[in-house]
Every structure is written in C-alpha cells, then in structure tokens.
Design goal:
Layout: H1 16-29, E1 38-39, H2 41-48, H3 52-64, E2 68-71, E3 75-78, H4 85-107, H5 110-129, H6 132-150, H7 153-173, H8 178-194, H9 198-220
Antiparallel strand pairs: 1-3, 2-3
Length: 222
C-alpha cells in the first residue's frame, strides 16, 4: 500500500475548454453518451453549462481523437464500439506505454510522484469500494501523471487518445475480476516508476498491456 501524500496537486484555473473536454470524455468513456448515438452541440452546451466556444473546442479535440464524428447539419455521432477494435487499440498503445514508463522512471519529479501516489491510492480505494467510476478517474489521473513524468510530449500526445479508447472498451467489457486485476497491475507499475527502476517500469508496463490484450482478445472471440 502507498501512503497518502501531505498535499494533493489539483488543477487551478483550468480553461473552460479543458473542463468541457474532461466532462465529455468522461461521458463517452462511461457510455453516458452511448456508442453510435447522435448528439447535438446545443444539447451538450446546455448539459455542461459552458459556453459555445469551449464546448466546440472540446468537440474538435474529441473528433481528432476519434471519439466523435462531426456530421454537418446532422449532429455529432459518438464512435461505435466494435469488440475487435480493442485489440487494435492495445497494439497501437503498447510501445508508447513502454517508452513512457521507462522515461517516467528516469525523470519522475516530486510533483509527478505526488500525482502517482494519489492515483495509486484512488485505485486501491476503488477496489475496496468496488467503485468502477472512481477507478476510471484514478486511471485517468495515472495517465496524466505518466505524461507529466515522462517528459516526452511526442509519445504522450499519441498515447492519450489510445488510453481513452482503451478505458471505454474496458468499461464496456469488464468482468467481475477486471477491476482488481487492472488496479493491481497499475499500482505495480507506479511503484516501479517511483523507485526510479527503468527496467522494472518497462516490465510492469509490458505486463499491463499483456493483461489488457488478453481481455481484448477474449472479447473479440465472443
């Protein structure tokens, strides 16, 4: 188990576009915006209580990431979930995760370490409470800590949408054991990073991807 840090880093003065993106991404990942459904910009603006410009910027980013399709005069289509695509997402993500894990172990700062601690504790608490949504939030925090610690914006930029796609697939196709398995492997990876052990971080990231791909393959075979 990891000890709670004395202070928790929290985003301050987060831009409205970032708030809109974070809220819409969460709704897509948790299927609150159902795969294959149609939404409108106006409905999302009303739902989020944010202005047109930040919501539009968030939608553009989600479209670039492949989570929505903008259809002029027809609304926004939420990307469908095809079971076989989960394997493709993991395969595309795999090498990037190893790069990020090794780099994070090498360069992790005090700020990033605090974020990793909070993510790990959030995952452990989510398992105890069997709270899948809390786990997803901790997993997102873990990915953001990894991006911060690795100091490789090129790898982080391409990994981020794949991480989001993977979370959505995991949420849709999780099993009774998925939560504890995924959280446990993430915590092992975090521990390796915090110990500045590049080889161990590479190994644990590889084990995490192996675990996720096994789940994806099982889903694709159904």
């Amino acid at each position: 188990m990891l000890n709670t840090p004395t202070s928790e880093p929290t985003p301050s003065n987060e831009p409205a576009a970032a708030k809109a993106y974070r809220a819409l991404e969460r709704m897509i990942v948790t299927l609150e915006l159902a795969p294959g459904s149609i939404a409108t910009e106006g409905a999302l603006i009303e739902r989020l209580g944010l202005g047109r410009t930040p919501v539009r910027e968030a939608i553009q980013r989600l479209a670039w990431e492949g989570l929505v399709e903008i259809r002029p005069r027809a609304g926004l289509a939420i990307t469908p979930l095809h079971p076989g695509d989960w394997v493709r997402v993991i395969d595309a993500r795999w090498g990037l995760e190893l790069v990020l894990a090794r780099s994070a172990a090498r360069y992790v700062t005090t700020e990033a370490a605090a974020r990793f601690h909070i993510a790990a504790i959030g995952m452990q608490d989510a398992v105890v409470a069997n709270n899948v949504i809390a786990y997803l939030e901790a997993d997102k925090a873990m990915d953001e800590a990894l991006s911060l610690a690795a100091e490789n914006p090129f790898a982080a930029r391409f990994a981020a949408p794949l991480q989001t796609h993977s979370r959505r697939f995991w949420y849709r196709y999780r099993t009774e054991t998925s939560l504890a398995e995924a959280a446990g492997q993430h915590v092992l990876l975090i521990q390796a990073i915090l110990q500045h052990d590049e080889a161990a971080a590479d190994h644990e990231a590889d084990r995490l991807m192996t675990l996720l791909r096994a789940h994806a393959e099982a889903v694709a075979r159904r």
